Amino acid sequence: MKYKDASLPIKERLDDLLGRMTREEKIGQLVQPMGWKTYKKEADGTVSVTDSFKEDIAAGGVGSLYGALRADPWTEVTLETGLSPRQGAIATNEIQRYAIENSRLGIPILFGEECSHGHMAIGATVFPVPLSVGSAWNPELYREMCEATALETRSQGGAATYSPVLDVVRDPRWGRTEECFAEDPYLIGEYAVQAMKGLQGDSLDSDRTMVATLKHFAAYGSSEGGRNAAPVHMGARELHEIDLYPFKKAVEAGAASVMTAYNEIDGVPCTSDAYLLNDLLRKEWGFDGFVITDFGAIQMLVHGHNTAANGEEAVAQSLRAGVDMEMSGFMFRKHLNSAIEQGLLSENDLDAAVRRVLEMKFRLGLFERPYADPDLAERSIGSEAHVRLARRLATEGVVLLKNEDGALPLSKSVGKVAVIGPNANHTYNQLGDYTSPQPRGQIVTVLDGVRAKLGEDRVPYAPGCRIKGDSKEGFEPALACAAEADAVVLVLGGSSARDFGEGTIDLKTGASVVSDNPWNDMECGEGIDRSTLNLMGVQLELAKEIHKLGKPVIVVYINGRPIAEPWIDENAHAILEAWYPGQEGGNAIADLLFGDANPSGRLTVTIPKDVGQLPAYYHSKRTRGKRYLETDLEPAYPFGFGLSYTEFTYDNVRVSPERIAPSGEATVSVDVTNAGAVAGDEVVQLYVSDVTASVTRPEIALKGFRKIRLAPGETQTVTFRVGPEQLQLLDKNLKPVVEPGEFRLLVGRHSRDLTACSLFVTEEKSL
User: Fold this and answer.
1) What are phi and psi of 555, to 5 degrees?
2) Predicted structure pTM score
3) Which residue intervals define the domain Fibronectin type III-like in the entry (predicted)?
């Protein structure tokens, strides 16, 4: 059997294996059932495969399993019923062993797992959500996070991850904003490249790398009204220049898999869009991996998009368009064979998809090394090194939005600091969506972090209220708590915590209360879209009552989308935007509050003053229209904004040479000085403005950034290269071109604080 001979080229092995397979076996390779239903955990902790899984293997096999290690309320896998890091590796080995030893050809299974901000398994490290990671403006640090995540996942047998999310945020009312890096395609593209390096490494056939799946392809973050999976109304130029750009960068960096989006673009569902999946992705971009659907996406072609009359038409549309594997496998398993028999698909169509899936298994080395290493899993998952990395990422991702009269950092001799608010001590509320059940001791809340600095006696606590709901029964103890303190840390925001059955918080005592019907504060996350951006419940009223006490009030937001609350912007003495900072969030926030770390996060999404200003992303066209009657178009906080405990000055912005050919390159430089008294990190940002063009252009567009650390009084010259990639546009035929003319190169601290110089592009013969 040539396909078992590792010394042969993959193509030769593929040809041999494909030639031996029955149609049923081929279809089996394209389905991905729910993995957590394939095993059962016995009372003694051992794992055995289920009868239903055995039946699937006997019926033709299973190509892949989704979320065998995933634990959350949807899977109904809990801390008690779930698997430890070691047990998880043993479980995938048992599943894999049964599939190999009880199928005719012994083809190994590909285990696919969710890893949006860490491996979604019990015991794994919970890193900050992508919105927080993006706010660090440190793609290289994100690469380290991806390396850690790949190690934790592959060590348990997971060989593919459904990340990174490369969607461009257009409307932050969208519940999945937290899963995205930014509203800017260039910034997302830089993170995409580092994700490929961190997740896939130099080779897929190792015990610490895995397949990265780009999602959601495409324009998923640009849905109508910010509603999940709603239609996308977009022209071809905008689609290519904005939403497709990060995907193209990731494909160029070697991405091995792509996931289709639920939405349609201009009437064509992405799951059946042959232009996106074949013409563009494979033929133009040269993508050589496999395409998988999102869960239930093919059903939507029949019930939702209604482009198919029945299941056979739906699977034919998707497979012909370029889909290779179906997450869930419901439609492929039920309708694919009959679609071929009805002539809607050919055997060649089926073989093309099977070939791409099998090729990835060969590239992963699964035929030679199909089993995980339980010892590696046990020592790698949740390791101290990964926890330290989570703390650094959380620290760099926090954005200081306001610091009136130097309210921060707090002195450790301040006296008492009251920690108040619904997110002050709620573990799941600071973790974000796509998170597994967590033991309490693994999560450091803001209360934990502040008490670690000052001691429990100096840090009174009260929750005050919940995220949602109109109960004010917690106001009185919260006000009493604040009254005895010298300063108040008020932790407000949102929650993407699904109902883990862990109980809720008693508003009078702050104690955890186990309940058969725990309060669900979820106001963000997948499928949780909003019509406003204000704080929910009575949080704003709580803030106003505490403010009346006359104490310094430091607001800490823990949330998954921008919050528009002008009263807090005006009246809080300081504001920290922490997003969902992960398991080490409390330590990171406490370090920043007391000056043990200097804030270096910068916004990657614009924060509007009011939801009525949407869309509010910074890269709007010059022709964006006039102001509203009630308000102007200026945001509360612009893209790229963030304060520090020191001051940075910019001087001597220059470009050399000042004239280049369309294919030429220049350098733009700026001198940045730390004019303050403490060391700090600054994010130096480069934007480009095309003064006159043949098509309308964004007023400015980010084209470079550099995060630098400066000691007090230190000056550093930061230089950016500017060439065709930074200057080009898509012409009327959607072809990339650098047009002659003037370009303004703008350098500064954020998108509303820039210093410009001019670069002129001249035809070659004029130089």
Assistant:
1) -90, 130
2) 0.97
3) 682-751
Give the pLDDT mean for 41-55: 93
Specify the CATH number for 648-766; select among 3.40.640.10, 2.60.40.10, 3.40.50.300, 1.10.1040.20.
Answer: 2.60.40.10
As its CATH architecture, domain 398-613 has 3-Layer(aba) Sandwich (3.40)
- Give the residue-averaged pLDDT of 2-31: 98
In the residue annotation, 753 being an active-site residue is answered as: no
Q: Where are the domains positioned within the chain? A: 2-379, 398-613, 648-766
For residues 159-169, give the mean pLDDT: 98
In angstroms, how far apart are the furthest CA atoms of the chain?
A: 81
Can 2-379 and 648-766 be said to share one CATH topology?
no
pLDDT tens, residue by residue, 197-238: 999 999 999 999 999 999 999 999 999 999 999 999 999 999
Strands 680-690 and 648-656: unpaired
Q: Is the pLDDT of residue 146 over 60?
A: yes
- CA 601, CA 399: separation in Å to the nearest integer? 4
Angle at 395 (CA atoms; ends 392, 399), nearest 5 degrees: 150
β-pair type (399-403, 417-420)? unpaired
Which of 294, 324, 448, 521 does the annotation list as catalytic? 294
CB atoms within 10 A of CB 695: 12
Non-local CB neighbours of 255 within 8 Å, separated by 6+ positions:
196, 200, 212, 213, 214, 247, 287, 289
> What's residue 515's pLDDT?
54
CATH of domain 2-379: 3.20.20.300
H helix or E strand, kind and range, residue 680 = strand 680-690
